[in-house]
Amino acid sequence: MEKPVQTWPAELAERYRAKGYWRGETFGAVLRERARLHPERIAVVGGGQRWSYGELDARADAIARGLLDLGLVPGDRVIVHLPNIPEFVSVIFGLFRAGLLPLYALPAHRITEIAHFAGTGGARAYVTVDRYDNFDYRGLAAELREREPGVEHVVVVGDAGETGFGTLAALEAAGRDSATQPVEPASSDVAFLQISGGSTGLSKLIPRTHDAYIYTLRESDRICGLTEDTVFMAALPMAHNFPMSSPGFLGALYVGARVVLSASPSPEAAFPLIEREGVNMVSLVPPLLLVWLEASKSTPHKLHTLRTIQVGGAKLTPEIARRVRPTLGVTLQQVFGMAEGLVNYTRLDDPEDIIVNTQGRPISPDDEVLIVDDQGNPVPEGEPGNLLTRGPYTILGYYNNPSANARSFTEDGYYRTGDIVKRLPGGYLVVQGRANDHINRAGEKISAEEIEDHLVAHPQVFDAAVVSVPDEYLGERSCAFIVPKGEKPRAVALKQWIRSRGLAEFKVPDQIVFVDAFSSTAALKISRKELRAQLRAQLDEQNNKDTQA
Ligand code: OOB
């Protein structure tokens, strides 16, 4: 039987230590050190609160003790389902310090996804917020307790109401008076579980160690020029790997900089904060960049403190990339990364041509990048192929998931990213597309298979195929082809069906097309993958006709 976590072979681990990549640091100890060096400096600003490093450190301590006093033991998994509020930071550092593993869920996730994480992650606790963005997370918590009784504890940030759940405030207060002494985990231990975009079916869990993740923070800080004077804004959901660690809010805290949390990435929420806090760095997905570029032309808010805008998560077109410097007077940095590991950056002093036309090059000299054809043979330099990678911070396997590991990793430990890229001289990568069927909707990854499974569960659906369609604003949008069973359902009813199945709103198909049947060859002889390709081609043809007409 495979172990739940695949680790690096001893000789590689030895090499990464010898080269000074892995330095034996842990998150809990890093925060302790920053708080000792400059206790008064502001670490986190958001939700009407300003916490110094000293205060954050003290809160993390209290939360660690409070959690252990609930009966949780080091190694236990705890789902963290929080929006961009300062408690996100105190809770995860409390967990790190107690040796408990946060499992990060996005605020958009709903009961079906959370129950899946709880089940596959074997989570014992769930930390959430009372209400946010018109959604009652306590209701979700109650349903979760029923569906996954292994989740013994619920901790609510804010008001627990009549639920009987504990609150973070109470847990922290109890922790402050507790004599429990948390034991710092080993730096080679898994620090947390990140979730995968889920190209085949349901999301998989990604185990990241302190050593490997902190290495990416240190190097990202250097590459992206972070100093103590950096004021980094987390505008995207901070549970996502990009604003978390590339260099993200964790990279900012690692150098003793300031993190400003925006409740939403909209210009209405973010611009006043940029002005008030003197934000100089932010990370965005391409559609948001477009919105920011437009809004910046007429905003009354002063944005002159901004120095770097990072863009990643989905492909940025050169046309839009080219507008960034003239419009906002900032340096653009392209970021091509994945929660499984590998992160590429354009460098701040790269020529404009590289910044505009490439997705950067890897962080580490020891990031091994292979570009191969479908048979696994290397393609000639400059030709597109499948990107495989391994290195000092790319995982060697998903958490507790042997069948996904057999598909996604080669025998010699390379991760099959599913991305089609080409490599330019100097190691710069240009993303060309995806080999597998997921939809990258404004940076949110949607598995076609997952949505199809939910659609065919509808009584009036005989068959369904979900494909990506190019979209001017979102980059890609989702289109569901439906073969009805009996009376044709209404498109709105199908969308409502997906919501009622307890899925994140971004997974609701943007477009629904009814067809009488999938071509008979398709239904019987070809794979889902080929069927989706055929349908995508049909749509392209249709769209071309429409634009010509
Ligand atoms: C980031 O992480 P994930 O895990 O949500 O998604 C990874 C996938 C990549 O495999 C690629 O398909 C796509 O997202 N992607 C890009 C891209 N950045 C990510 N595709 C084209 N151009 C880019 N710049 O999305 C992520 C993690 C860390 C840093 C940045 C992004």
TrEMBL record:
<dbReference type="Pfam" id="PF00501">
    <property type="entry name" value="AMP-binding"/>
</dbReference>
<protein>
    <submittedName>
        <fullName>AMP-binding protein</fullName>
    </submittedName>
</protein>
<dbReference type="InterPro" id="IPR000873">
    <property type="entry name" value="AMP-dep_synth/lig_dom"/>
</dbReference>
<dbReference type="InterPro" id="IPR025110">
    <property type="entry name" value="AMP-bd_C"/>
</dbReference>
<feature type="domain" description="AMP-dependent synthetase/ligase">
    <location>
        <begin position="31"/>
        <end position="399"/>
    </location>
</feature>
<dbReference type="InterPro" id="IPR045851">
    <property type="entry name" value="AMP-bd_C_sf"/>
</dbReference>
<dbReference type="GO" id="GO:0016878">
    <property type="term" value="F:acid-thiol ligase activity"/>
</dbReference>
<dbReference type="InterPro" id="IPR050237">
    <property type="entry name" value="ATP-dep_AMP-bd_enzyme"/>
</dbReference>
<dbReference type="Pfam" id="PF13193">
    <property type="entry name" value="AMP-binding_C"/>
</dbReference>
<feature type="domain" description="AMP-binding enzyme C-terminal">
    <location>
        <begin position="450"/>
        <end position="523"/>
    </location>
</feature>
<comment type="pathway">
    <text>Siderophore biosynthesis.</text>
</comment>
<dbReference type="InterPro" id="IPR020845">
    <property type="entry name" value="AMP-binding_CS"/>
</dbReference>
<keyword id="KW-0436">Ligase</keyword>
